[in-house]
Structures are given as C-alpha cells and as structure tokens.
Write the structure tokens for this entry.
Amino acid sequence: MSQVEIARLAASAASEKKAHGVTILDIRGLCVFADYFVICHGTSQTQVQAIATGIKEKVNQSDVSLKGIEGYQDARWVLMDLGDVVVHIFHKDERDFYDLERLWGDAQSFQVQ
C-alpha cells in the first residue's frame, strides 16, 4: 500500500467516526520525517478517542503498521505514527489553537469527504 493510500485509509476511517475537517497535507519535500499528515478533530474527548480507535482498527485490518500512538488518554491531541504518514486527531479547541494547516501552509492540502 502506498503512503498516499495509507493517508486516505486513515482519513476515511476518521470520516466514518464523524471526524470534522478531515484534511490530508502532502508534506513531501517539506520535511524529512513524514510524507503526509492527516488532520481532523472531534468535539469531545470521547469522540477523539473513538476516531483514534477507528483508525487503529482500520489500519490493523489493512496490515499497516501502527508504530506508535500518543495522547490517547487525555484525548486533546492524539498523534498516530503510521511511518511516513502521521495522523493528528485534535479536540476542536486544540486544533484551532495549533492550526497545523497554517504552520504547514506550503503543503498541498485536500479535504476528505
């Protein structure tokens, strides 16, 4: 499975859990630690955890390696390491505050339906 397919898989899994503002940033050439960011948010800690769990289940079913997950317990900013794809699942307040899309403004982005 290609990196962009993994990003789309994670984005699709987030959408299935009713994540808001699901966006993929193509950061190839802008940094050395990843090729894609998947960014989304939930409106409660429970929803943020459900989104993370849904992504984890979906990638495990597709034999994609989940190398690590951080922030699940607090569910304010969950970070999932899928190798060259990094998934950021925010609580809405944190997403507004950190505004990764602005920070990575040189990256090509596309919304996921």
Summary: The chain has four helices and six strands. Residues 45 and 75 are 5 Å apart (CA to CA). Strands lie at 20-26, 36-42, 68-70, 77-81, 85-91, 108-111. The two ends are 21 Å apart (CA to CA).
